[in-house]
Amino acid sequence: MSNSNDIKLIKLVKAGDVGSYAQLIDNYQHMAFTLAHSIVKNKEEAEEVTQDAFFKAYKALGKFKGDAEFSTWLYRIVYNAAISKIRSRKTETTSIESPEVERQNAFNFADNLNRLEQQERKVFLKKALKNLKEDDAFIIILYYYKEQSIEEIVQATGLSKSNVKIKLHRGRKQLQTELEQLLKGELKSFI
Amino acid sequence: MTDKRKHTEDIDDQIIKDLFNGYSVEQAPDSLKSNTMDKVFKDWTAQKVEYKPLINNSNRWWILGSFAALLAISFLVDATVIIDYWNELKPDTTFINMDSFNKQLGDMALALKNLPSIVYFTVIGLFALLGIDRFFNRLANI
């Protein structure tokens, strides 16, 4: 997924070939969905946020100058849409998948640790990420999974450099705590 | 103390990096793409087709009127009058041969006269098509 390829597709869309936008969605839908989910912590809302972000990106394609990568530009729209979503929540509801219940499930799950390994890592990581505070997970995923630099994360979130560093540090600490809780101290021996 | 803290942070960082090696992004639901494209196409079809007239609306009638007047004058005035007037001005150039101007106009008129009628009908047909297309374009944008 090179930026030049993205720019070619964007030019086609701008020229009236709207169908080419489907290719851009194909390229980024999973990452955008993951990032939205990392903030809103709910699959239905994450889908809604991702759809909304892609549509907003389509409407704003004229403003995309290609200075930054399309992915970074898109992730910023996803970030803003997700943050708006959680701010618009008027009442706090406790979902079935609340962190407390999940933590309890994780403890049970940890008993079967010896039977599961590689797959288990993914599950624990995803659970731990879900328990992170709002945009901390978003930043952690961009930094550790997408291997983006602090500057790129600054572009993708619109936060200041120092704020990103603080959130990254806090997120890392919280992630470790969550993992430790999930694995009941077995994390270090497991890794 | 600071070195120790930095060392611990580096270890934490490495642990998380290792964990992310096996990480895979979540699969977006199939409906995401189709729903988004539905919205995109809906928006695209709802957009007005931009039509930019080559000639400004207010100036169009002046231009058409002037053209019609010039056409009428060209039928009324003998081309030799123009040539005589031109000769009176005595233009300081040898590149324009006004004597052949009249002949050329005559030749042109003859050529137009000899054109098969199908050419005229085709041209009229083309302009009619353009006109109808523009008419429906306008209707679509009402």
- How much of the sequence lies in strands of chain B comes to under 5%
Oligomer: heterodimer
Instruction: Give the overall form of chain B.
Output: elongated
Secondary-structure element pattern of chain B, one letter each: HHHHHH
Strand segment tally of chain A = 0
Strand portion of chain A: under 5%
- Average predicted local confidence, pLDDT of chain B: 77
Number of DSSP helices of chain B?
Answer: 6
Radius of gyration of chain A: 18 Å
Describe the structure.
- The complex is a heterodimer of chains A (191) and B (142).
- With 191 residues, chain A is mainly alpha-helical.
- Chain A has helices at residues 3-14, 21-40, 43-59, 70-88, 99-111, 118-130, 134-145, 150-157, 161-183, 187-190.
- In chain A, helix 2 packs across helix 7 (134-145), helix 4 (70-88) crosses helix 8 and helix 6 (118-130) packs across helix 9.
- The radius of gyration of chain A is 18 Å and the shape is globular.
- Chain A starts with a helix and ends with a helix.
- Chain B starts with a helix and ends with a helix.
- The model of chain B has no long low-confidence stretch (mean pLDDT 77).
- The interface between A and B is medium-sized, with 36 and 27 residues.
Short description:
The complex is a heterodimer of chains A (191) and B (142). Chain A contains ten helices and no strands.
Which keywords apply here?
heterodimer, A: 191 residues, mainly alpha, 10 helices, globular, B: 142 residues, 6 helices, 0% strand, elongated
Topology (elements, then pairings):
The complex is a heterodimer of chains A (191) and B (142).
Chain A: H1 3-14, H2 21-40, H3 43-59, H4 70-88, H5 99-111, H6 118-130, H7 134-145, H8 150-157, H9 161-183, H10 187-190
Helix pairs in contact in A: 2-3, 2-4, 2-7, 3-4, 4-8, 6-9, 7-9
Chain B: H1 2-21, H2 30-46, H3 57-76, H4 79-89, H5 99-114, H6 117-140
